[in-house]
Design a protein that fits this description.
single chain, 86 residues, mainly alpha, three-stranded antiparallel sheet, 3 helices, 3 strands, 7% strand
């Protein structure tokens, strides 16, 4: 079940970012919050995936949404894997 939660969290983040591209801040906030909550349990990472970067980016996006902004510019979530160079 733990593996399922990890993948569900990644999917929720992806759909949250999709909502940003369609101008739906409510949907984005809801799914980003749920994804972040799930993935925080796996810090610093799992299955070779490092989570601190994508969670920091998602937290910044959530703060922007809460401030009434649509954080599309500069928000480029990236999944980093163990062993990736820089």
């Amino acid at each position: 079940m733990r593996g399922w939660t990890f993948f569900q969290g990644l999917i929720q983040l992806a759909i949250g970012y999709y909502h940003l591209t369609t101008g739906n801040p409510t949907g984005a906030q809801h799914l980003l919050e749920r994804g972040v909550e799930k993935l925080n349990a796996f810090l610093p990472g799992t299955r070779g995936v490092l989570l601190s970067g994508i969670l920091a980016t998602s937290d910044a996006a959530l703060r922007a949404i809460q401030d009434g902004k649509m954080p599309l510019n500069g928000v480029r979530p990236k999944i980093e894997r163990e062993g990736d160079a820089g």
